[in-house]
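Slide 14.
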Amino acid sequence: MPDKLKVLFLCTGNACRSQMAEAFVKKLKGDAIEAYSAGVAPFRVLPETVEMMEEIGYDLSDHYAKDVHALKKIKFDYVVTLCDHAREVCPVFPGDAKVIHHGFDDPPSLAMNAKNAEEALGHYRRVRDEIKAFIETLPEALENR
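Slide 15: predicted structure.
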């Protein structure tokens, strides 16, 4: 069996989108992809992220935000930026990592303008489901870019 693809999912804080992507890959595509996540300015995994993933059976309670610079020695096949800020400041990685951008809305930013808590969580759910749909297309979607 060939080696798994090493894929880093990168966003600004490693607080939401990249955490979701890593979790989805590990559960849905773990036979083909070794997933990592990190942030260019790591913050913390947001409680809403943990709650929204728990709704669909994913336990992120032990996840923590990681700094992208801590992963510089890993030879990634792909680095997938999930937000515009990460795309703009994405560091250079050793080896032949192909950088791909597949942006998603930022749930925390959208939630700040929500009328109520349920509407705020709705933004997290929508983006979570969009990320899952994207992950379901891997690894083919990466290799075809």
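Speaker note: The chain has a mean pLDDT of 93.
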